[in-house]
Amino acid sequence: MAFVPFHYTNLNEVKEEANNLGIDLNFSNDMSLFHKEAVVNNIKIPNRLAVQPMEGCDGTNDGSPGVLTKRRYERFARGGAGLIWFEAVAVVPEGKASPNQLQITEKNISEFQSIVETIKKSAKEQHGDDFSPVTIMQLTHSGRFSKPYGKFEPIIACKNPFFEDKYKNEDSAKVVSDEELEKLEDEFVKAALFAKRAGFNGVDIKACHYYLCSELLSAFTRRGKYGGDFEGRTRFLLNIIDKVKDAVGKDFIISSRLNIYDGIEFPYGWGVDRENYLKPDFTEPLKLVGKLYEHGVRLIDITMGTPYLNPHVNRPYDKGDYVPPEHPLEGVARMVNGIGEIQKAYPQMLIVGTGYSYLRQFSHYLAAGSLENGLTSLVGFGRMALAYPDFASDILNKGELNKSKSCIACSKCATLLRAGVNTGCVVRDAEKYMSAYKEVAQ
Fold first, then answer.
1. Is 337 helix (H, G, I), strand (E, B) or coil?
2. 74 with 118: CB under 8 angstroms?
3. Cα separations (Å) of 432 from 49, 339, 374, 418, 441?
4. Is residue 2 part of a domain?
5. Cβ(160)–Cβ(150) under 8 Å?
6. Cβ-based neighbour number of residue 143 at 10 Å
7. How many CB atoms sit inside 10 A of residue 41's CB?
8. pLDDT (tens digit, 9 = 90+) per residue, 75-119?
9. Cβ-count burial of 267 within 10 angstroms (0-12 exposed, 13-18 middle, 19+ buried)?
10. Which domain holds residue 255?
11. Which of 57, 60, 192, 251 could anchor a disulfide with 244, C-beta 3.0 to 4.6 Å?
12. Bridge-partner residues for 202, per DSSP?
C-alpha cells in the first residue's frame, strides 16, 4: 500500500481509511480504562499510561542528568502518567550512543537520586499526595551504534551486510568476545544496584532497536555460547536478568524493552519470516517472553525495528530521511496488533504497548481500544510525550487530546537524537530546541 501522509480531520476518517485498506485497528471511547491501577512486584502503578524512554542527549560530562534532563522529567511527572520509563542510561562509557548520553556510576548516584526525588515531588504537587509514578531506568549498551566521543566506534555481535551497506564501518567494528560479554553482564548488575540506590523502582535491560542486547537475539551467524541457537542468542539477556535479580531483591522491578520484530532479512533479523523478512514471525519472541516470565520478569515494554535502518517500522512518520515503503497505518497496525499477539499469549504479563503517537489527537482512542481488547496492559507514548508532556493528564481528566499540542510525526526530534545533540520537540518546544535543529539540519 502506497505511503499517504496524515490528513484526517476526525476519527471516522481514520476508521474509514483503515477499513478501505483492510487494516485491523481497534478503537474505543471508554476512557475509564486508563484510570485502572496495575501492580507489579507489589508496586502500584496508579494508571495505565506510560512515558516511553526518550533520550535527551543532554547529560553532563560525567553522565549525570543535565539541566534539560531535569526539566524534561519534571514536566513528565506533572503530566500525570503512572509509569515513567526513564531514558537509556549506559552501563559503560564505551557503550554510550553519544557523548551526552547518561551513564550512572558510583560517583553520580546522588544526581540520579535528585531527579527521582524531583519526579516524586512534582507528581505529588500536581496530582496529590497519593499519586506516585513508578520509575524504571533503562540500562543499555549501544553496541554497533556506540558513539562515546561523537563518531561511530561500533562494538558488534556479528557482521551484518545491511548495516555495512549504509554505514560502511563493519571492517572497523570490534566483534565483542564471549569473555567481554561475561564482564558486561556484571556491569549491568552494578548499574542496576546504582539505580536502586538512586530510588528507581526498577530497571529495564534494553533489548530493542538493534543495540547490543537486541543484536545478540539475531546473532544466528555468531559462534560461541552467545550466538547460534535460541539458547545462545538469548543467553546474554537472561544471564543479566538472573544476576540482577539475585543482587537487588524481590521488590525491585526487573524488566526489558524488547524488540519482537527487527524487519531485517534473515539470518540478521529477529522475529522475521525466514522467506520474507517483511512479515513478522513471533515464534521466537513468544518463546523468549515465556522464558522472561519463568525468570521472574512481570513487566515488559515491546517495540519493533531500528531507527538506524528502518525507522518507519518503530515510529511511523510523515517526514523523515526517506519515503516509507508502506502506508503509515500499516506500521501502526503491525506494532499494535503484534504486541497484542504477545499480550494474548501471556495475559499474566504486564505489557507496555507503543505505536500510538502517529495518530496524534486521535491516538487515545486506539490506545483505549488496545486496552479494551486485551492487546496491551499499559499504553506508552514516546514522541507524544516530548511534544505534549501533559498528555496523560488530558486523557485522564478531559478524555481527549489537544490537536495543537500533539506530536505531528515530523521526525525532527529523531534528527536531533541522531546528531547527538540536545533532543526534544522542535515544533512544540521551539524555544529550547529550534536553534539546535537549524544547525544540524543544514
1. helix
2. yes
3. 26, 34, 39, 17, 16
4. no
5. no
6. 22
7. 18
8. 999 999 999 999 999 999 999 999 999 999 999 999 999 999 999
9. middle
10. 11-440
11. 192
12. 136, 253
Identify whether 94 is part of a domain.
yes
Residue 1 reports pLDDT greater than 90: no
- pLDDT for the residue numbered 250: 85
Q: What is the pLDDT of residues 392-434, one digit of tens each?
A: 999 999 999 999 999 999 999 999 999 999 999 999 999 999 9
Instruction: Say if residues 35 and 244 touch (Cβ distance below 8 Å).
Output: no
**Position 338, amino acid:** G
C-alpha cell recorded at residue 256: 526489558
Report the domain count for the chain: 1
190's grid cell: 552494578
Within a domain: residue 194? yes
Which pairing describes strands 38-40 and 43-45: parallel, antiparallel, or unpaired? antiparallel
Task: For residue 1, give the C-alpha cell.
Answer: 500500500
Is the confidence at residue 354, as pLDDT, over 90?
yes
CB-CB contact of 409 with 318 (8 Å)? yes
The whole-number average pLDDT for the span 50-65 is: 97
Q: Can the peptide bond before residue 267 be classed as cis, meaning omega within 30 degrees of 0?
A: yes
**Residue 409 · residue 6 · CB < 8 Å:** yes
167 near 148, Cβ under 8 Å?
Answer: no
Q: Give yes or no for residue 442 having a pLDDT over 80.
A: no
Rounded Cα gap, residues 317 and 310, in angstroms = 11
**Helix H or strand E encompassing 166:** helix 161-167
Instruction: Give the model's confidence band at 204: pLDDT under 50 very low, under 70 low, under 90 confident, else very high.
Output: very high
Count the neighbouring beta carbons within 10 Å of the beta carbon of residue 260.
25
Sign of CA dihedral 418, 5, 333, 136: positive
CA distances from 401 to 13, 18, 112, 367 (A): 17, 21, 31, 12
Mention every residue, 6+ apart, whose C-beta is less than 8 A from residue 127.
Answer: 80, 393
Is there a domain that residue 3 lies in? no
